[in-house]
Write a structure and sequence with these properties.
With 215 residues, the chain is mainly α. The protein has two domains: 54 residues, Arc Repressor Mutant, subunit A; 149 residues, Tetracycline Repressor, domain 2 (Orthogonal Bundle). Helix content is 72%, strand content 0%. The longest helix is centred in the last third of the chain and has 25 residues. It is elongated, with a radius of gyration of 20 Å.
Amino acid sequence: MPKRTFFRLDEDKRERVIRAAIDEFRKNGYENSKVGAIAQNANIANGSIYQYFEDKRELFLYCVNWTVENFIRELDRQMPLAGMELFEYLLEGLPGRVAYWMQEPELAMFAHDLTDGAIDFPPGEINTVRELYGSHIPKLIANGQKWGSLRDDLDDDLLALFVKGVVRETEELIYSKSVGSGFALTEDQVGSNAEQLGLIVQMLKSGLSKMTAPS
């Protein structure tokens, strides 16, 4: 956790420090990132970072948590997961994710590289980000089974693993397109991707819905 002095800063300055750190960690990884470079990019004195955080490790872990919480908060704002089931999430989730990538490209790239394992973690720290991003899938599966839209004769863990793989690979494809366009996909491109995803979801639904379960 940051020191109390960090939370005494105004919100804009706190965010400036965190975003400068995220940019440095994304470009150089944990080991090769420099606290001095973070301070310079945040337009603060070099020693100020250590007034806010115990060390680089603490700053990095806070940046990871801040990014995850930012993404999940925005996702839940667009799609209240407590009231959704799996197929609804798959159909409606991608446009919201793409919109977030367009709005927050630096955070999107940092989150992507964290889940992909492209950014090294401090020694002894386990990268749990990928699992955090998929932690809502079992809840959506449970909703679908409870509401009768999803087969309940399938192993929940295997089904969750399958769905996470589908979501991950789909996001990877759209993310790659977004990066390639400099995060400047047009609305038509986003719409076209969403339409194609809808067709794929319908194919999945035809095999996973309760109506297709063997009697």
